[in-house]
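Extended Data, panel c. Modelled sequence:
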Amino acid sequence: QLQLVESGGGLVQAGGSLRLSCTASGLTFDDYDMGWFRQAPGKEREGVGCIVWNGRRTDYADSVKGRFTISRDNEKNTLYLQMDSLKPDDTAMYYCAADGYGFKTTNYNYWGQGTQVTVSS
């Protein structure tokens, strides 16, 4: 069973940066494509971006394109989300997901518990 644990969330001012991490255990990390999602209060969970198993392809939601960067270190079993030029609209719980690709939650089989990101204006 693949287990995912996110970290790195917090409170940041608009225009600032944060880097989220997602550490995997339980199965072979580089067997899996992965993604980041977020969910704001009262809204559906939405895809932020995704990355294939070897890091050679990434895709991003239009809302974060040019500001967020997904990467992974398969030696460390860790997925990253570098978030720059943060906006108050980026405030949400952020989740990593594994064993899927794209922006639909139903594409993925494993989920972390989430880490909160709050962007103040």
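The chain has a mean pLDDT of 97. This feature is highlighted in the accompanying rendering.
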